[in-house]
Amino acid sequence: MERPMPTASAMFHHANRLRKAYHTVLAPLCRESGLPPMALDILLYVANNPQSSTATQICENRGFKSAIVSVHIDRLVRAGLLCRSTDPADRRKTCLCCTEEAQPLIVRGRALQQTFGKALLAGLSPQQIETMHACIAKIDANMDAMLAAAGEEETNA
Question: How far is CA 139 from CA 38, 86, 106, 146, in A?
Answer without folding.
Answer: 26, 35, 30, 10
